[in-house]
Amino acid sequence: MVNAFVKGVVLALVVFPCALFAGDLVQWTDEKGMVHFSDSLDNVPQKFRHHAKQDKFKDKNPQRSSVNSAGGLSSADALILGSMLEAREQPPKLNSFEVPFEAYEGTAQRVIVSVKFNDSVTAPMAIDTGAPGVLISPKLAGQLGIYGSDEGKVLIQAGGIGGSVPALLTFLDKIQVGEARDSFIPATVTRSISGSFEGLLGMHFMSKYSFKIDSVRQVVIFEEIPANSNWPGGRPERWWRDRFKELNSVRAAWKRLVPQEQLWQAQYGPSRFASRQVMEVDKLLEKLDRYASQNSVPQNWR
C-alpha cells in the first residue's frame, strides 16, 4: 500500500507541474529516527539543522534544473524524491546486541549473565522467564545498600514452588545487561537459591526485549521492541495497575496489624514493627506515584 502511494506521488510529480517544489526541499531526522520534510530550513528545529539535507528543485542553470520544460519535476529528481518518501515510511532500525552467558551451574543448564545494578554493582544473575520480577540475594542487597537506604523496603511473603518465604520488596533504579537497560524495576530480596548466581532476572526486565538464546555460541541475543506510544514509561497499563494494587494490598495487610501492637507491647515490650512497615510501603507508593507522574500515567491506572 505504501509503495503504491509513493509511486503515485512520483508519477504525479513527473507528469504534472507542481509549484510547491519551486524552491528548497529540506529533509531532517529526529531523535527517534523519523524522517521529516520542509520547504524551508527555518522550519527545522535548531538542534537538527546541522544534519538537515537541502535539495534545490529550481536552478538558474537550465541544464541542471530540477524542473523540466513542461513545468513538472524531472524524472531523475522524481526518483530521488520517491526514495526520500519511501525512507520516511520505513520504521527506525532497532538495536540488536549479544551478551555472553555461562551455560552451567553444577548439573543444571542455566543461562547466567553478568548484570550491573544501579550503575555500581555487577553480579551474576540467572535468566528465568518463569519469574515475573527480579529476585536478588541478601548478599547483593547488602552490596547495593538497600538495608541502610531510606527509599522504602517492606516485608512481604514471597511465594514460589516450595511455598512462601519472608522477603523484602523494593525498587531498583537501574539494571543493565550488556546494552540492554531498564529503569525503576520492582525487586524482591529473598534467600539465595544457588552459590553460582545472586538472583533471577525475570520478565519485568526481559519483556522489554525480544530475545533468543544461541546455545552453540553461548550468547543471548537481545533486540529492542518498538516503542508503544500507549505504554507510559515503556510499560503497559496492566503493569502500572498491578504495581499500585500490590503495594496497596501490602499496606492494607500491615495496617490491620497496627492495633495489635498494643497487645505485643504488653507482652514483649515496646514494638512498632507493623507501623514501620506501613511507613516503608508508603515510601514505595510515593516513589511509584512520582515515577508515574514523570511518565504521564493516567490517574485511573494508579
Automatic annotation (TrEMBL):
Keyword Signal carried by entry: yes
InterPro entries: DUF4124, Peptidase_aspartic_dom_sf, Retropepsin-like_bacterial
Region (Disordered): 51-71
Any matching Pfam family: Asp_protease_2
Signal peptide stretch: 1-22
Keywords for the protein's UniProt record, in alphabetical order: Signal
Domain DUF4124 residue range list: 13-45
UniProt KW Signal keyword: yes
Protein name: DUF4124 domain-containing protein
Organism this protein belongs to: Nitrospira lenta
